[in-house]
């Protein structure tokens, strides 16, 4: 038997069946199952998004490695192209017969001008430190000589040095002053 005593909300209460739920509630198992399916779907979507992001990162890494390999392989392409006229000029000079000293000299000057132009475009600069203070980072002293110049001053350049974007390719080979007699090197 059920008694239909209205409660504060005016809903009937079934007194004879203590297990009976109020009429406004549905089966909690259905709610939990729906939430579980929703959570599983969301987890699957997040896993899919994560896998895609992981694949994108791997593709980006591979592409970057390929780009770096190409850049390394062809880094000097522009410089090599700039050197081709120098090679051509040297080949023409060697192939020419009946060369006079004057034509040989003018050809060598033109070839040197082409080489200097190629160096300039590649930002390769000469180190000619005559009269400068000795710098062990840019110069290689092969001899110390007595001189009236202050101690540790470059007095003779045996071989010019070269830098590429402020990085020494080859230090200048130099002779350095010992200083005037009685002067101590600094």
In brief:
The chain has 186 residues and is an alpha+beta fold.
Keywords:
single chain; 186 residues; alpha+beta; Nucleotide Exchange Factor Grpe, Chain A, domain 2; three-stranded antiparallel sheet; three-stranded mixed sheet; 3 helices; 6 strands; elongated
Q: What's the helix-strand series?
A: HHHEEEEEE
> How many H/I helices?
3
Query: CATH superfamily of the domain at 123-186, please?
Result: Head domain of nucleotide exchange factor GrpE
- Rg, Å, rounded: 43 Å
Structural class: alpha+beta
Q: Profile the largest sheet.
A: 3 strands, antiparallel
| Integer average pLDDT | 85
Please estimate the helix content: 40-55%
Terminal residue distance: 116 Å
CATH topology of the domain at 123-186: Nucleotide Exchange Factor Grpe, Chain A, domain 2
Poorly predicted ranges: none
**Amount of beta strand:** 15-25%
**CATH architectural grouping of the domain at 123-186:** Roll
Total beta strands: 6
CATH class category name of the domain at 123-186? Mainly Beta
Q: What topology, given as strand order, has the largest sheet? A: 1-4-5
Global shape: elongated
Can you walk me through this structure?
This protein has a domain at 123-186: Nucleotide Exchange Factor Grpe, Chain A, domain 2, CATH 2.30.22. Helix 2 packs antiparallel against helix 3 (101-121). The strands form two sheets. The protein has a three-stranded antiparallel beta sheet with strand order 1-4-5. A three-stranded mixed beta sheet has the order 2-6-3, with no helix packed on it. By secondary structure, it is an alpha+beta fold. It contains three helices and six strands; from the N terminus they run αααββββββ. The chain is 46% helix and 17% strand.
